[in-house]
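Subject: two folds for Thursday's group meeting

Dear M.,

Sorry for the delay on this. The cluster queue was jammed most of the week, so I only got both jobs back this morning. I'm pasting them in the order they finished. Each block is the input sequence followed by the predicted structure tokens. Could you check whether the formatting survives your parser before we put anything on slides? The first protein is the one we discussed after the seminar.
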Amino acid sequence: MNEAPFIRPQEIAFDIDGVVADTFRYFVDSARVKYGCGFDYEDITEYDFRKVIEIEESVSTAIIQRALDDPIECGIQPIPGAISVLTRLAAKAPFLLFVTARPTEPEIRSWLLHHLRDVPAEKIRLAATGTGADKRGILLERDVSYFVEDCLETGFILEKDPVTPIIFEQPWNRKPHPFPKVATWRQLEAWLEW
């Protein structure tokens, strides 16, 4: 897709990790500081990062579990620009929809409410599917036209549906693909109908 889409506030939804929450940066920082690992953020060139970085499975599992259990306490930060754009969008949309492959909702809901302080809680809708493939059903059920995602595999799952994946650029999704992509929240903001 060469042209930027023109997106109405009610027709877009968002993944969380790697799009709204800077979870992978937390992962890298924790691995380096707490466990002495020697890789950088840019080294994560596959979504399944264990294929491309050297890390003990027990270490990666511990870091991931902490991110799942308490994203606020472990200090996961929003991706730059996410909170301001989402807060602005919440004023226009009936609600903000987040669809995550996380296995449970309460912990990441708390994180969203913590960072989206100026958005009423009832305007934040969240679905935790447990897998990327299961996001499809939620998006179709909610009549979403655009889904901002960092995982190319999910993009290809949605490709045949009326849902257009917008890939939020990260080191792990820089392979060739047919989807529109954004590098920043400011770029995405320019695609929204205000």
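Second protein, same layout:
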Amino acid sequence: MEKVKMQILSALLKEPRTFWELITMQDLHLARFTDLLKEMKEKGWLKWEGGVLVLTGEGGQQARKLDLGEREEVTCPRCQGKGVVRDGLFKKVYQKMKEIQPRRPEAISQFDQGPVELETLIARLMVMYSRGDLEQRDLLVLGDDDLTGLAAALTGLPRKVQVLEVDQRLVEFIKKTVQEEGMSNLEVGSYDVREPLPAKWKASFDTFFVDPVETVKGILLFINRCVSSLKGEGAAGYFGLTHLEASRKKWHVLQTRFLEMNMVVTDIQRNFQWYELAREKFVESEYPLVKEAPEKLPVPDINWYSSDLYRLEAVSTPQEVPMEIPEGRELYFDDEAYATLP
């Protein structure tokens, strides 16, 4: 936790920050982050002024003892740290998705939905394309509240895109959009991840994409189903995983299980995916983050929730691992799920 204290002190040396800004500038999961802010406030290192966190004189002394400087911005301003720049075909798909996305059904907490920014959505596809995992490949998208499958199909690059979705509202919306756009390379079906993957979709895809829940059981369940859909050695999978609701110990458990699936982690891109969570509604709801914050939180003025983009690759025949199927909200919620409703 010492490193994160230094991250916070350095950020506040530069200038006062909102609670939401500080979340994006540190590496703890939200439960530990809120505890650390309480501790630093009790020690008199920082204070709240109108919803903004300000470093006190004592906090400044602590920063000087640690020989800290003001935090500088080092992220590439053009790609926002994603390593890809939208142009050509992907710029055209971006413009088309700007027309389509506003018509999609509203995200609901029943399925822990939270779509990413459109810039993130297109960047996902560019990364997949750059790694040879999109063009002339068969792509499975498991859960698609942000319409990744539609965007992938609009590029015309995959041979086939199969979307599997539990929310019937999204299933019908995607079907309608496919008809309106005259698309022939995308199919969508209803599927609940707690059920075994039907045989017709097993060992059928070169690439999968999924943005799973943040519980260990939930992530493993989603990845298990996706892994069983892959054709074999060299097939790849992409998914998002946060540090905000998934501690490094959780990461360790998951990465160990990925090896049992005959999958290796080839890439992790930090803070790649940024989400468009409800703002006013978020602070008005009984989310653990809101309840446990050291002070009453203002409405976020930025998209503050992010996840890292993982890439997995099969080194031999992909294998599902034995696991217990979670029931009810256990699929979505655990002690680290501070931005998820119980």
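Two things I noticed about the second structure. The chain has a mean pLDDT of 95. The two ends are 26 Å apart (CA to CA).

Cheers,
T.
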